[in-house]
Write a structure and sequence with these properties.
The complex is a heterodimer. By secondary structure, chain A is an all-alpha fold. Chain A is 66% helix and 0% strand. The longest helix of chain A is centred in the middle third of the chain and has 31 residues. In chain B, helix 2 packs across helix 3. Chain B starts with 24 loop residues before the first helix and ends with a strand. Chains A and B meet through helix 1, helix 2, helix 4, helix 5 and helix 6 of A and helix 1, helix 2 and helix 3 of B.
């Protein structure tokens, strides 16, 4: 990986630091930098493994804490390996949390006879802040009906390109092209309106 | 990682990585349609790839915005497909229901006739159900859900053991429950569309026991 590409991915300002240099000899990412880069990824990662948004947030925070601790203790060999290290740490944290939650739930059931846990709403919705959701919604509402329907079919109804293509009487490749255009128009609207 | 060979980073937020676009990967990931291995491989990738992470975030925002629109009554033309990640289910081996019972609709009579007619929107459940255990039989009713083709009714013990699961086209149920007379039971109803995606759910409800003939 050349210096320019490293700088684009690196958490510290471009410098003479080699991407292969040990993390201990380079500036350790600050907590804020770690949060900015990985918090969203960690929340989504955890949402797939844990039963609710609160548990996912706990797992994300615990992962960041452990990663920061590992960086300060020089346990991360190379900064270029940081994303993989964060990923593996998150896996362990989520596994531990899922086991712990399972034990706690069973204990509560035995103790209180409260019955099975309530089903949770879609955990993905909680990952996007209300303000951002509102902005994206306004942009979607400004799209044409066909674009909006297509994006809804792709991202909300979870239909694959082949399924949408069959409904519209077009090819899956054409569906993907239309989807990209609709997304681009949506981004343009967001930028134009500073949403 | 192999996918780095495909990235040309000049702008960390706009890479030419095409992995997320291959085979509708993001859509399938968010809908829970990838295998665990596929999903984990994609997750490992978006921890590394800014472009694919950006694309995933945008998809998530779009999905969330549509969810808001649906909850506020801007209903989609077709049924919403909720993420299959959604919930933890305390399932175990199921017991088989012993036949149908012609129900006494005491519950409906108490309410003066018709079951609830509105699909209610809430934070944790999408529609209300009315049900009880009468004479050892689960009897219940719920409102018709737009775009629902079939309703899946499940009955659980307090320990989360699945006792019974049945799919019905109607919005009422009358099924003998294979359980002890004093056992606390819970039930839930899920409305499924023609693609068998869940379009609405009642959430788990404790089943009150009412006296009746066995």
């Amino acid at each position: 990986m050349d210096a320019e590409r490293f700088a684009a991915h690196s958490l510290q300002p471009p410098g003479p630091t080699s991407p292969d240099a040990p993390a201990a000899s380079a500036a350790i990412p600050t907590e804020a930098e770690l949060v900015q880069r990985f918090h969203g990824r960690l929340r989504l990662f955890a949402a797939r493994r844990l039963p609710d948004a609160a548990a996912a947030e706990d797992a994300a925070q615990e992962t960041l804490r452990r990663v920061l601790e590992a960086l300060r203790a020089s346990r991360v060999e190379k900064l270029a390996a940081l994303p993989a290290f964060v990923f593996e740490t998150a896996r362990h944290v989520c596994q531990q949390q899922a086991r712990s939650m399972g034990r706690e739930e069973r204990a509560l059931q035995r103790l209180h006879g409260d019955g099975p846990a309530q089903s949770s709403p879609d955990p993905l919705v909680a990952l996007v802040g209300a303000e951002r959701r509102a902005a994206v919604r306004r942009a979607l509402e400004a799209l044409g009906q066909a674009d909006r329907d297509l994006l809804r079919a792709c991202y909300y109804q979870g239909l694959e390109a082949s399924e949408i293509a069959a409904r519209l009487g077009i090819t899956p490749a054409a569906v993907r092209v239309r989807k990209h255009r609709a997304l681009r128009r949506m981004r343009e609207i967001l930028e134009e309106r500073n949403l | 990682m192999a996918e780095r060979e495909h990235t040309q980073v000049t702008d960390p937020h706009r890479t030419s990585c095409t992995r997320a676009e291959e085979g509708d990967l993001i859509e399938r990931y968010l809908a829970g349609r990838l295998s665990d291995e596929e999903a984990e491989a994609f997750e490992a990738h978006y921890f590394e790839c800014e472009g694919c992470w950006d694309a995933t975030q945008r998809a998530l925002e779009v999905r969330s915005a549509f969810d808001d629109m649906a909850r506020e009554g801007d209903a989609p033309r077709d049924a919403p497909g909720r993420s299959r990640w959604a919930t933890w289910r305390p399932l175990a081996a199921a017991a088989v229901v012993a036949g149908l019972l012609v129900g006494t609709w005491g519950l409906v009579a108490e309410r003066g006739g018709a079951p609830p007619t509105e699909v209610l929107r809430g934070a944790e459940e999408d529609f209300a159900v009315e049900g009880s255990l009468i004479g050892g039989a689960l009897t219940g009713a719920w409102p018709r859900v737009p775009r629902a083709e079939v309703y899946r009714v499940r009955l659980f013990t307090a320990d989360g053991v699945l006792l019974m699961e049945q799919e019905l086209a109607d919005t009422t149920v009358a099924i003998r429950a294979a359980s002890r007379a004093d056992e606390v039971l819970y039930w839930e109803v899920e409305a499924l569309d023609e693609l068998r995606q869940i379009v609405a759910r009642s959430g788990l409800r404790r089943l009150p026991v009412r006296p009746g003939t066995s």
